[in-house]
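Checklist before submission:
- one chain only
- standard amino acids only
- sequence pasted in full

Submission:
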Amino acid sequence: MDDRYFRRLSRAREIAAMRRRLTGPLPRIGLAALVAALGPALTACGASSVTTTPTPSGSARHAGTFNVTVNFTGAQAVQGSLTTPTVGATCAQYATNALEWTIGLGPELGNPVSVDGASINFLISVPQSTFHGAGTYSGNVVSGVSVGLDTFAGTDSTLTINPDGSGKASFASYIGTTSSVDESGTIAWTCSS
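Returned file contents:
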């Protein structure tokens, strides 16, 4: 792996963290504004170009909502649902925009949500270099899985993105930091505007 890979990975994580910080009580900014602000930095990190789809003025705050269903098994079983807004992109744009999947889908980073009485967190993301639109991805696409005080890590995960922005991700045999029992699960979502 060359140094450019790690700089891009680091930049993608910074963007994801920024997105998560902006989803708190402060107003959200549109994707176009985020890309415009970060475009020079992305170019400096070796990205050859940044393509955006302008966000309609009325949808800069929330263009849609992900209705997410989780089903985790293993160290702690968790079944339930949550909602999380899209950021400046329509549901269909999430199926075609690499930047949206570099930023990812999941609860706000560092702010787990309560589902089925358990505090959980996760991030579903696809590296911009491997994103090809609607379809199936595998490898380390589900990360940051936490249930309660335990964090789970692994690389056995898959993701399917549908043309309408809906999809499903699964992970298997993620190893816990404090638990001797692995965690596996599925995360499915629909997207509504």
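Reviewer check: The radius of gyration is 16 Å.
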